[in-house]
Design a protein that fits this description.
The complex is a heterodimer of chains A (266) and B (194). With 266 residues, chain A is α+β, with helices and mostly antiparallel strands. Chain A has helices at 3-30, 37-45, 58-68, 80-91, 126-129, 149-153, 178-182, 207-213, 223-227, 252-256; strands spanning 101-105, 159-162, 165-168, 188-192, 197-199, 233-236, 239-242, 262-264. In chain A, strand 2 (159-162) and strand 3 (165-168) form a beta hairpin. Classes of the chains: A alpha+beta (266), B mainly alpha (194).
Chain lengths: 266, 194
C-alpha cells in the first residue's frame, strides 16, 4: 500500500478545507454588513416557507421591508395574527393598529340576477374574456365575469365561483391582495373583516341601463346617501360606496335601497 | 485552426450544439423549477453565467497548480465541490458588501446554484477535455449562456402556455416536461452547425 499517497490526499483535503473555512470565516468578518438586529429577529419569527404570499421575495425580503417600514407588521398572510403580534413586539408597535382585512367582490350579478349577452367560447380566463366584444359575455360591462382568474391566483383557496360570480370565503382570506390585482374589472376591494353593510355593485351605468342588465345593480339614486346619518355612504359615478370607518352599522342604507344592492354580511 | 476559431467552435459547441440542459441533462432542477416567469428565469440565467464562469476559472487553477503536481487528479470531484461551494459563499458575502444592487438582483438564486450539477459538470468537463484555464473559462461562459438561453425560452413558452386549454392529465409539470423534450429535439437541429 502506498501510505505516502494516502497521506498526501488526506492532508491536501484537510488543509484545503481548513484554509477555506478560515478564509470564509475572516471574509464574513471583513464583509460583515451592518444589519438591523430587528431584521434577524423578524426572520426567526416568520414561518420561513418563503412562499412569497406577501409579495416580497421570501421571508427575509419581507423582514427587510418591515424594518424599513415599507410593509405592515402583519404583512405575512400565512403567519396570521400570532406572527403579527410577535413582529409588532419586535418593532415596538401595537399589533392592534392594523385592522383584519378581507377581500370583497363588489358584484352580486350572479346567473340568477344578471344575464349573458352571448355565448363565449374562448379561454376560461377573465383577463381574456374581458377583451371580448362588449367587455365580455356578461350583460353588465362592470360585472364579475366568473371565469375565476382570482380563484387561480388565490394561494389560500379563499375565493370560489358561486352561481357564476366570485365569492370570498372570509375565514380563509388572508388579504394578500393578489385577487385585487388580477381582476380585470377591478371588482375586488379589501374591507374590514367586521364590515357589515357592503355595496354589491360596481356599475357606473345609468339607471335604466342597469335595470336592463341586472336585477340587483346600483342605479345611483342616492337614497342610501340621503338617509345615512353618519355620512358614511357616498354616491359617485352612479355607484354607492360605504366608508367603513364612518359606518355605524345601523342598516338604514340597506332598508332604503330600492334595488337590494346593499347587503348585510354577518 | 487559429486560436480564435478554436474558441468560437468551443463556444458554439457548448452553448448550442451540446446544450447543457437540453442535450446533457445537467441542471434540470432549476431549469424546470425557476422557469415559470421570464423575469425570474433571466435572473437565474445571469446568476448561472456568473457562477459557472467564475468556478471554471478557480477549478482550472486548483486543478493545474494543486492537484496535478501532487498527482491527486482522482480527488477532483470532491475538491471541486469544496472549492466551488466556498467560492459561491464568498462571492455572496463580497457582493452583499460591495455591490448591493447586483446582490439584490441575483437574490436567492446565487446560493441556490452553489453545487448545482451544471456548475460541477462544467468544471469536470473542462478537465476531461484537457482545456487550458483560459479555454475552460470560455467553455464555462458558453455553457452557462446555453443554460440561460434554454431557461429563457422555456419560461417564455410557459408564460404563453398559461392561456392554453391543456387536457387535464397534462396540466402542470407533464406539459412542461413535454415542452422541454420538444425543445431538446429542436436543439438537435444545431448539431449540423459544426
Amino acid at each position: 500500500m502506498n501510505y505516502g499517497a494516502m497521506l498526501t490526499a488526506v492532508l491536501l483535503i484537510g488543509i484545503l478545507g481548513l484554509l477555506l473555512g478560515l478564509f470564509l470565516g475572516f471574509a464574513a468578518k471583513i464583509f460583515h454588513v451592518e444589519t438591523d438586529e430587528r431584521e434577524d429577529k423578524i426572520i426567526e419569527t416568520l414561518p420561513g416557507n418563503n412562499c412569497g404570499g406577501c409579495g416580497y421575495p421570501g421571508c427575509s425580503g419581507l423582514a427587510a421591508a418591515i424594518v424599513k417600514g415599507e410593509a405592515p407588521v402583519n404583512g405575512c398572510p400565512v403567519g396570521g395574527e400570532t406572527v403579527a403580534a410577535k413582529v409588532a413586539e419586535i418593532m415596538g408597535v401595537e399589533a392592534g393598529d392594523s385592522v383584519h382585512m378581507v377581500a370583497y367582490v363588489k358584484c352580486a350579478g350572479n346567473c340568477e340576477t344578471a344575464e349573458k349577452k352571448y355565448e363565449y367560447h374562448g379561454e376560461a380566463d377573465c383577463r381574456m374574456a374581458g377583451l371580448a366584444p362588449g367587455g365580455g359575455d356578461k350583460s353588465c360591462v362592470y360585472g364579475c365575469l366568473g371565469y375565476g382568474s382570482c380563484v387561480k391566483e388565490c394561494q389560500f383557496d379563499a375565493i370560489h365561483i358561486v352561481k357564476g360570480i366570485a365569492v370570498v370565503d372570509k375565514e380563509a382570506c388572508k388579504a394578500c391582495g393578489k385577487c385585487v390585482e388580477i381582476c380585470p374589472k377591478k371588482l375586488i376591494e379589501l374591507v374590514p373583516y367586521d364590515a357589515e353593510y357592503l355595496v354589491a355593485c360596481s356599475s357606473k351605468d345609468k339607471g335604466p341601463d342597469v335595470m336592463k342588465s341586472c336585477k340587483t345593480g346600483c342605479i345611483g339614486c342616492g337614497l342610501c346617501m340621503k338617509n345615512c346619518e353618519a355620512g358614511a355612504v357616498t354616491v359617485s359615478e352612479l355607484v354607492a360606496h360605504i366608508d367603513q370607518d364612518k359606518c355605524v352599522k345601523c342598516g338604514v342604507c340597506m332598508e332604503k335601497c330600492p334595488r337590494k344592492t346593499i347587503i348585510h354580511e354577518v | 485552426m487559429s486560436t480564435l476559431t478554436e474558441l468560437l467552435v468551443i463556444a458554439v459547441g457548448s452553448a448550442l450544439v451540446s446544450n447543457v440542459v437540453l442535450s446533457q441533462f445537467y441542471g434540470l432542477c432549476p431549469f424546470l423549477g425557476v422557469s415559470k416567469q421570464l423575469k425570474t428565469a433571466s435572473g437565474m440565467g445571469v446568476a448561472v453565467i456568473f457562477v459557472i464562469t467564475l468556478s471554471s476559472l478557480v477549478a482550472g487553477v486548483i486543478y493545474k497548480f494543486l492537484l496535478v503536481p501532487f498527482e491527486l487528479e482522482y480527488l477532483k470531484t470532491i475538491v471541486f465541490i469544496l472549492v466551488i461551494a466556498a467560492l459561491v459563499q464568498f462571492v455572496e458575502m463580497f457582493l452583499k458588501k460591495s455591490v448591493p444592487s447586483l446582490y439584490q438582483s441575483l437574490g436567492v438564486y446565487l446560493p441556490l446554484i452553489t453545487t448545482n450539477c451544471a456548475v460541477l459538470g462544467t468544471a469536470l468537463t473542462n478537465v476531461q477535455e484537457e482545456y487550458s484555464i483560459f479555454y475552460g473559462v470560455v467553455n464555462g461562459f458558453a455553457t452557462a449562456a446555453g443554460f440561460a438561453i434554454a431557461i429563457c425560452i422555456l419560461a417564455g413558452i410557459r408564460e404563453k402556455m398559461r392561456y392554453n386549454d391543456i387536457p387535464k392529465p397534462f396540466r402542470g409539470m407533464p406539459i412542461v416536461l413535454i415542452t422541454a423534450g420538444l425543445m431538446a429535439i429542436a436543439f438537435c437541429g444545431f448539431s449540423g452547425l459544426l
